[in-house]
Amino acid sequence: MLIRNAEINFDQGVDVRITGERISAIESSLLPLPEEEVIDANGGALLPGLNDHHVHLYAFAAAQASVSCGPPQVRDAEALRERLRAAAATLSDGAWLRGIAYHESVAGEIDRDWLDAAVPNHPVRVQHRSGRLWILNSSALKTIGAEYDLSAPLERVDGRATGRLYDSDAWLRTRTSATRPALHQVSRLFASYGITGLTDTSHQNGPAEFSAFAEARSRGELLQALRVMGDARLDAVTDVAGVTRGEHKFHLHDHELPEFDALCADIRRSHSASRAVAFHSVTRTDLVFALAALREVGSIKGDRIEHGAVVPPELLNDICELGLTVATQPHFISERGDAYLRDVAAEDQPWLYRLRAFIDAGVPLAAGSDVPYGDANPWASMQAAVSRRSESGVVMAQNESLTPEQALALFLSPLDAPGAAPRKIIVGAIADLCLLTTPWRDARIDLSTVRVQRTWAAGRSIWKM
Predict the structure, then answer these.
(1) pLDDT confidence of 173, banded at 50, 70, 90?
(2) What region holds the Amidohydrolase domain (predicted)?
(3) Which of 22, 36, 140, 355 is deepest in the core (most CB within 10 A)?
(4) Which residue segments constitute the domains of the chain, with CATH numbers given?
């Protein structure tokens, strides 16, 4: 395949030949070979395929059939009631209604009674935007047999279940459908953004999930290369074509932290299996605890912090000293910034989702969408890294903003080395590529408007506009 009139390195016009899975030639002008497919890039920027370094694939796939229950789609209680009732009206008798992305700014701390008043005749479960909380109505509690089951991990007040279920996804899956959703739709959505690599960071992933991902990849349902984080059970898993074992993920919550010595033992066990660790860190307390454990055990190359939502200067120094990588979400400033300004302590607001400070300190920095808890569009995330602007227009910690080129680089590092040097289009490289509709000088003006006309993974077309 020959791609003509493409732009690489932001300003260099070239022709690029792909042979099999690799780039075989780059010249100012190449003649087509007999029967070779020729694609005219029309001056569009040809970039390495993007890598999204933080996703939750099966949750994202399930979200496609769910009702959005939070901002920006839903902003008040009446709008939520109307949306839930409209969705319920389309369902067959007894069918589940699944909501996602709820935030208490919409209708406060809702519970089973609130949901019963909105939708009394269908089992309903609504997930909080954080991913940590499900709220079930009475019909749902009855359907899963949890109303009077005192062993069920439900919140109860005076012995009565409120319908609120914290940090119990695995338990809930055993009571509802165990069928994994297909990945076809979300994989093609990623491809439309130019994404050729993903890291699934779900902390509960084990051998069964790893095998399911490998099967989806082998049958062509999953188009991207995938790195799979998960729990200690993955220590013994062997990589397969297109699916590799990732870090041991620890999902910390500052109100319920694990026993420190046990955590240190778990880190040592994974390190001894030549496996780095990753810590979910969205509060100052989470981060302090994770850094203390790594200081006690000792860090290895590849240990990383997920989100790094609040990183004050003294903790940034510790991250540097431990040689850690950070995988963050720049778009949370645009998507959630106004809520952060309202809810996050004033002393922590300057340290929210920092970017430039990490780069200036030499900390390897990468980005991921955190879908379904954030927008899947990496170009919107890049623009958020440049503008640092909330939905209402407030600029937050402008000193943390990046150039368009630095923002792009957050998605160009290898899956197994997030934050390392951006991959380049060079002869011999795997042909993971995305072709934009415009040259880079136009794309960089507003990255959120970027459109991808073609995407190739290992030389194979996986998206065409």
Answers:
(1) confident
(2) 37-461
(3) 140
(4) 1-48+423-465 (2.30.40.10), 50-58+181-422 (3.20.20.140), 66-175 (3.10.310.70)
